[in-house]
Amino acid sequence: MLIMSPKGGAKNGSTPDLSACPTSTEDLTVAAAFPNFGAKWNDYVENTEARFYDAADSLCNADGTIDGGTRNSEFAGINSCLHGGVHRKVVISDINSCDGLEMTDTLEAFNWLCVDRGASVEFYSAGLKEDKQLATLLNDDGDGWRENSVLLKNAAGCELKTSAPVNGWWSNAVHNLNDLDNTTVGDANTLGIPGVSGVDASKSTASGPLVAYILSAPSEIYTFTEDTQLFGFHIEASKIAMVVYPGKKLIVPSSMGHCAVDGTFTAGSGCLIGANSQNHLWLEGTYDVANFAYLGVMVLGGIKHSKLWNMSIQNNSDATKNGLLFYGGVSSYNLIHGLRINNISGDGIYAYNVNYNVFHRINSNNGSGLRGITYDATTTHNILSGYLASNNQNHGFLSREDSDNNTLTHATIVNSNSKGMDLAGSDNCNYSQLLVSRVASFGLHFQTSTSNRLSNVMLVGGADHAIYVSSDSTNAKFYDNLWVRDNLVPGNLTDECWVETSDSSIGGGATDCTPSGSDFTLSNTVGGSGAFVGSISTDNTNQDTNSLSGGGVLATNLISDWFGFDNWMRSWGKGTAPGDHYDTSNRGICSGSNDCAMWDWRLSSADTSGTLNVNGAFVAGDPCPASAKGSVTLSDQTIFANTYLVNAQELMFDGYGDDDTLCESHEHCIYSPNVGAYQGEGDLGSCVFDDDAGAVTDVTMYGYLTNGV
User: Fold this and answer.
1) Residue 545, φ and ψ in degrees, nearest 5
2) At the N or C end, where does the chain have fewer CB atoms within 10 A?
3) 304: which DSSP letter?
4) Strands (E), 356-465
5) pLDDT in tens, 173-218
């Protein structure tokens, strides 16, 4: 993804004339930005200032206590502790302005930010790029760091300075676990790899020894560079990283693995990865339980300030089991980014008593038992942004049992065999930029839920009413736009809503969704058939493409690659290729020997339903569309009281914001021309932002130059 440099250095455009460039010098040094407490990869420091690069180099403990410094309330939540390990620093003492300067690293792993310091400038790695992994920084053998260096250019494209290539900017030890085998798992502390042991006799039960490996050495990095079959792991120390390399899997060979949900090993409580009350973890890669009945592929309880990064979870066969299960302790301040979950028979994500986390770019597809995501038991103050749920047998999203004060935005829920979203006993939440299409029940279902806010919601093609609001659900407020079409009885606009209370933006008894005031605009003419690209017959990345039949399908039980797609908006699901999701026979899951097709849930450039560019088309260099003005906002009901643009998302990991995905004042953001998860692709251009005397100001607004396929 190319963008224009905030300091004016063009990252895209015409090829510059380099004939007059000075000779480059190799005099740069890459160092830890926080050498005392942020030198190693999973080290965290206290966020004491408005900008991460000005923070004190003081220890941040995951339980909220600090060793020096003062907590910066502006960055409460996931950034109350900064991931110090990801931040490297380069000081350039003989240049005094950032204008036109651009820094890159050889591995193209990081976003770099320039800071003027008066007589000098400093560059900081602001974060990993969204599509990069810790594996990008590790060598091919998975036992050390890859060589990396930095390069400084000016606006003319001249290479001014470089650093000497170094094998790693961190001192963490890296261990390849490919050679572990299941015959040694019962032998405690004899495996020869630091921090790795088998379950000892004290953790056995009457039914015999429990089978799992123990990871107990802080700050170690453990890797799998090949497909590997092992019984499972329990993490017993903080600051551990586990990395499965791209295209490889960690697979359990039988239903013998066990993990500690409540801090003790329990027979029958199986999982591939388990952790309880550990913090500052990094988990990455693909995890597969090979269709054995496990409590969860990954069971995490009481973890804090950890990152689940570009991770895939698949193949849990029991109807009550889950993909990612947060259970056994309050998990808080974690970032879950780039998570794909497929072919799970329970919930894709089951979050039990989970608070103050950010979920970003999540796919939960072809779940055969429960929901795409479930919030339960006081799961509060979380942000979920960029969510695709397709072909799930039950709801796309469920929030219940006092799971209050959450924010969900930019979600596409399609072809669920039940409700799109079920909100049962869930109060004071914000829902915006929602696209729910062709589900087998209600699009939105409110039961015993109070004071929820919704903005820019599209509900089309459902088998029941677009919206149901029960008599005990009060103060449901809709803002900006509500698009409803073809729900319950296609073409009958008088049965789109079922509202049993008058305390709502929709009038009580208003079956046609008539607004009770002027909070939102109702439309019955947008959305429907042909909006998405639909099912496809090939994908350049997926390893199963060559196995597809002439009809573009593959038997579900023959699928080996559930996640390898050219873009994150693709998934496996019921159907044939080519096909339109509006065909009701494509609802629900594919399973067993039944046909499964590849679906592309990006919007079609040939869309005639009005879904594409429904918020106004982006034109680089022009004023931003009116829907992106600083007055088109929502204020969430979390403890952080964020006020954000409805039709934009934060540009993540660039160093300018708090990485909570919401577009707030003083941040760099990406405009949302559509409704739902897909907002374009490819390179970015910029438009002229107008705050319109609104609550959100000083935004640098970008937009994708390509929208629709």
Assistant:
1) -55, -45
2) N
3) B
4) 358-365, 373-376, 383-390, 397-400, 407-414, 421-424, 430-437, 444-447, 453-460
5) 999 999 887 766 655 555 689 999 876 555 555 445 556 788 999 9
Tokens of 190: 């004899």
pLDDT score of 6:
41
Q: What is the CA radius of gyration of the chain?
A: 25
CA distance 704 to 702: 7
Question: Is residue 353 a contact partner of residue 301, using CB atoms and an 8 Å limit?
Answer: no
Contact between 217 and 172 (Cβ < 8 Å): no
Phi/psi for 75 (5° steps) reads -115, 35
Residue corresponding to tokens 């990395």 = 243
Mean pLDDT, range 235-256, rounded to an integer: 87
Beta-carbon contacts of 202 under 8 Å, excluding residues fewer than 6 positions away, are none
The region of weakest confidence among 108-117, 461-470, 501-510 is 501-510
Q: 393 near 367, Cβ under 8 Å? A: yes
123 neighbors 106 (Cβ within 8 angstroms): no
245: DSSP letter: P
> Rounded to whole angstroms, how far apart are CA atoms 652 and 655?
8
Q: What is the pLDDT, as a whole number, of residue 688?
A: 98
What's the pTM value of the predicted model, to 2 decimals?
A: 0.94
Number of H helices, E strands in the chain: 0, 54
For the chain, the farthest-separated pair of C-alpha atoms sits apart, in whole angstroms, at 78
CA distances to 89, 430, 645 from 410, in Å = 34, 11, 12
2 pLDDT band (50/70/90 cuts)? low
In the prediction, which pLDDT does 125 show? 98
What residues form DSSP beta bridges with 384? Answer: 359, 408
What residue ranges do the domains of the chain occupy?
Answer: 25-44+83-167, 532-603, 626-706
Bridge-partner residues for 561, per DSSP? none
Q: Half-sphere exposure of residue 344, counting CA atoms within 13 Å on the CB side?
A: 34
Buried b or exposed e, range 101-121, using 16+ CB within 10 angstroms: bbbbbeeebbbbbbeeeeeeb
Burial of 611 (0-12, 13-18, 19+ CB in 10 A): buried
**For residue 209, is the peptide bond before it cis, meaning its omega torsion is within 30 degrees of 0?**
no
Q: What span, in angstroms and rounded, lies between the C-alpha atoms of 675 and 532?
A: 12
- Strand ranges (E), 567-622: 570-574, 595-603
Q: What is the pLDDT of residue 579?
A: 83
Tokens of 252: 């359990």
Mean pLDDT value of segment 300-316: 92
* Chain segment 360-402, per-residue pLDDT in tens: 999 999 987 778 999 998 899 999 999 999 999 999 999 998 9
Class of residue 519 by CB neighbours under 10 A (exposed 0-12, middle 13-18, buried 19+):
middle
pLDDT at 79: 83
Write the CATH number of the domain with boundaries 25-44+83-167.
2.60.40
